[in-house]
Amino acid sequence: MTTVFGELDHVLLMAPGPSPVAPNVLKAMSIPTLGHLDPDCIKVMDAMQEQLRAVCKTKNAVTFPISGTGSAGMEATFVNLVERGDDVLIVNNGVFCSRMVEVANRLGAQVDVVECPWGQPIDPAAVKAMLDKKHYKILAAVHAETSTGINNPIAAIGELVKNSDTLYLVDSVAGLGGVDMRVDEWGIDAFYSGSQKCLSVPPGLAPASFSDAAMEAIAKRKTKVPNWYMDVSLIRKYWEGSPRVYHHTAPINMYYALHQALDNLLTEGLDAAFARHTAMHQRLSDGLAKLGFTPFVKEGGAPQINLYLPPAGVDANALRACLRKEHKIEVAGGLGDLAGKVIRVGVMGEGAREEPIDRLINAVKACLNK
Amino acid sequence: MTTVFGELDHVLLMAPGPSPVAPNVLKAMSIPTLGHLDPDCIKVMDAMQEQLRAVCKTKNAVTFPISGTGSAGMEATFVNLVERGDDVLIVNNGVFCSRMVEVANRLGAQVDVVECPWGQPIDPAAVKAMLDKKHYKILAAVHAETSTGINNPIAAIGELVKNSDTLYLVDSVAGLGGVDMRVDEWGIDAFYSGSQKCLSVPPGLAPASFSDAAMEAIAKRKTKVPNWYMDVSLIRKYWEGSPRVYHHTAPINMYYALHQALDNLLTEGLDAAFARHTAMHQRLSDGLAKLGFTPFVKEGGAPQINLYLPPAGVDANALRACLRKEHKIEVAGGLGDLAGKVIRVGVMGEGAREEPIDRLINAVKACLNK
User: Fold this and answer.
1) What is the mean pLDDT of residues B93-99?
2) Residues B167-191: what's their mean pLDDT?
3) pLDDT tens-digit readout, A180-200
């Protein structure tokens, strides 16, 4: 037998996730595994919870990574909060918002959708108009739309339900660590992210946080959460109290990676990291503008997710193929209506640095001149 | 800021999971991350699927790891097969069988339970008696009960539903790789395991397999699977066909680890690995017998999961504390009625070797003589 490892390229990951992983994070992943109830495992968990609270700007007790990828975070937040027949309002301006609609529908929610144009930030007035007409148990929105390169105004949308009993559910899979996120100040009740975007950890964990109001709503459910694996009230007992109550076996090596990456981020400082993402986004846009590329998003663009229309006569998919084949660089293509029309470039975590950005710009130039 | 890594012990993992991880598997985990649609990522996935089919002894097209721990495998198999009101028969002789009951109930199944004494293998006659009385959509059993140290007669139970339309769902979280598993020959329709037991991969993946009959039953559902993240019909499109259809971002570094560990296992040969587990189980039992320990399971005991009653006057929990504190070795305690009464020792994967077994026996001796 043999493995395929010898055949793998070392690819510079400049798609909007997964992002490049720092060497010390890859190294942390290979620390020998610990048992899920070992006191040393609990040390890692406790330290990681404090880091996550700092990065999410929350005091929420229930703050930990769900054992799955970012989409598991989506599933976990909805399945804990939604009971069949619950009214849910979802703001839709991209692929991941549409996924929320699908997840909530499958759980039996009564879903209403505020349809907003893709490629533009959500207009809070459109959300308010819906909220004025009907009472919702949950209002859900995506912070950073990976499909279109938009950061939505999560704080302004949150204001609309702040003094109500409507729970505010927010996806920041592609935002956390790259742009500001204030779970408590913005009134977010159920929050999730993904490890593989601006946190620069391999995919496999979904940092999540639930407010006291969300946990009270879960405690008042008439039916049990129809997903034992993701029942946060059970998982919570594993993350706090003494003794810890076993739920499922913690993916400890992924915890090591997240713990190290969060340390990298907090050592740099959140504001410095956000400024770096913005500066590197600008460096990339300037470099590509000189090569004739136009940003797809005119206003409210996310620094960490960049969609560009190539210059006339350049095929986006051929360019991507050249970058991957000749230069071992991954960038993503457009989704939905944008397929084949744009390139999507991540400026995320370890990818938001001068060396990878310049390498990408130079490689694009070389591909155009071929 | 700082990490806690400097404070962590290197612990020899001799509980029934997680098991020790081979150095080349830890090293594989730190191979640079690849994008989830990169052709090189697909190479890893294709190779891993072939390996999994070989280890599970199946030709099932739908064979891949669920992106979560072993319990995610349980959730995934049940949530795909069960619709509200479906009749499900679960054979119960341990903690993980009881978990199945909870998972199925939460999904709205009509669950009947064959209660069997804990610490004894299931008697197929008891299952037959239930099957004779009522038609079930699903019959579910646990292969290796981590809580009691039993390997259940999965082949004999499977015979009971082989020529029927009842789907056979089997948990081999703690069996796969340590004892024989024949998914096709034994008529298993929905199968799952965990990475962190006899496969000796860190926790975080649940290898799973679905028969054509299971996939047909899923295709005939009247309602969508109420769990988007674990919908195998969607995930399947990511594992086969061209182009691959994105579902969720694959936890690629965990795939590296599983790919390497499966290569280790298949290079050794399955039969050789099973024989090694049996021999190391015997070595451990002989060594502990000399120190006055008695096996808890008299017959049908699993080589990979060993429960021992300590000699008179020895407190099981004090012994465990001594092993962990003085010798940096983890063994588990009893669950449920067995709490404080037994030690549970894993002879799993990389733990099923002379060096760790002898180190454990010597450490137990040292603790008894303290």
Assistant:
1) 91
2) 98
3) 999 999 999 999 999 999 999
Same domain flag for B258 and B280 = no
Please determine, for the modelled complex, whether the ipTM score is greater than 0.95. Answer: yes
Instruction: Say whether pLDDT at B12 is over 90.
Output: yes
Residues B319 and B256 in one domain: no
B18 and A266 within 8 Å at the Cβ level: the answer is no
Give residue B140's pLDDT band: very low, low, confident or very high (50, 70, 90): very high
Residues A196 and A291 in one domain: no
Residue to substitute from A105, A229, A266, interface B, most B β-carbons within 10 A: A229
Mean pLDDT of B149-155: 93
Structure confidence by residue, pLDDT tens digits, A202-212 = 999 999 999 99
**Mean pLDDT score of chain A, rounded to an integer?**
96
Cβ distance A249 to B224 less than 8 Å, yes or no, reads no
Q: Do A36 and B18 touch (CB under 8 A)?
A: yes
CA–CA separation, B140 and A87 (whole Å): 35
* A344 has binding-site annotation: yes
| Cβ atoms of residues B352 and B280 within 8 Å | yes
- Whether B152 and B227 map to the same domain: the answer is yes
CB contact under 8 A, B29 and A29: yes
What tokens were used for A218?
A: 């879960």
* Overall number of domains in chain A: 2
Check whether B299 has a pLDDT greater than 80.
Answer: no
Expressed as residue numbers, the domain containing B131 is 23-266
B206 and B340 both lie in a single domain: no
B187 pLDDT higher than 70: yes
Same domain, A288 and A260: no
In chain A, what residues touch B3 (CB-CB under 8 Å)?
28, 47, 259-260, 263
Question: What CATH code is carried by the domain that includes residue B321?
Answer: 3.90.1150.10
First to last CA, chain A: 40
Q: Is the pLDDT of residue A146 over 90?
A: no
For residues A14 and A31, state if they share a domain: no
User: How far off is chain B from A227, nearest CA to CA, in Å?
Assistant: 7
Show binding-site residues of B for substrate.
Answer: 344
Distance of alpha carbon B258 from alpha carbon A351, whole angstroms: 27
Q: Return the percentage of chain A with pLDDT > 70, whole number.
A: 100
Residue with tokens 């810890």: A244
- Asked if residue A275 and residue A244 are part of one domain, the reply reads no
Measure the CA–CA gap between A87 and A192, rounded to whole angstroms. Answer: 21
Residue that is last in its domain, among B238, B266, B294: B266
Helix residue ranges, H only, chain A = 23-29, 39-56, 70-81, 95-106, 124-133, 154-159, 212-219, 232-239, 252-268, 270-290, 316-327, 354-368
